[in-house]
Amino acid sequence: MANYRRIVVTNTNGVAIVSFNDKKILDEASIQELGSELFGLVEEQAGGGILLNFDNVEFLSSAALGKLITLDRKVKASKGRLKMCNIRPEIFEVFQITKLNKVFDIRKDAGDALKAFS
């Protein structure tokens, strides 16, 4: 496992569970670094599952949404699966407005998301 600054990765039953260190994912430098860390994780997990746990995230910029879309494409290209959970209602609303809730597999909590991998 690599060392990360923006995320914490734990592994459960072959699924990489990603928690975010930043409460607000806003500035370009942080988003670039976050993207690099997540894309590296996709290569590490090739063909496996990745669960993004947004429990700690209070705000997400539109640039961060762009990174998530790219991440989704990379995961699918590596034959892996990406799920998300614990998204706050105000952030989920942005996913709904942008129709990204139809693109991403978003679950209520980590337990529900982990069950969906099996």
Fraction of residues in helices?
Answer: 40-55%
According to CATH, the homologous superfamily is STAS domain
Instruction: Give helix and strand order, one letter per element, not per position.
Output: EEEHEEHEHHEH
Reported by name, the CATH topology is: Transcription Regulator spoIIAA
Radius of gyration: 13 Å
Domain module tally: 1
> Which CATH-level-2 architecture?
2-Layer Sandwich
Report the portion of residues in β strands. Answer: 15-25%
CATH class identity: Alpha Beta
Instruction: Using the alpha-carbon principal axes, give the shape.
Output: globular
Which structural category do the helix and sheet elements fall into? alpha/beta
What attributes characterize this protein structure?
single chain; 118 residues; alpha/beta; Transcription Regulator spoIIAA; five-stranded mixed β-sheet; two-stranded parallel ribbon
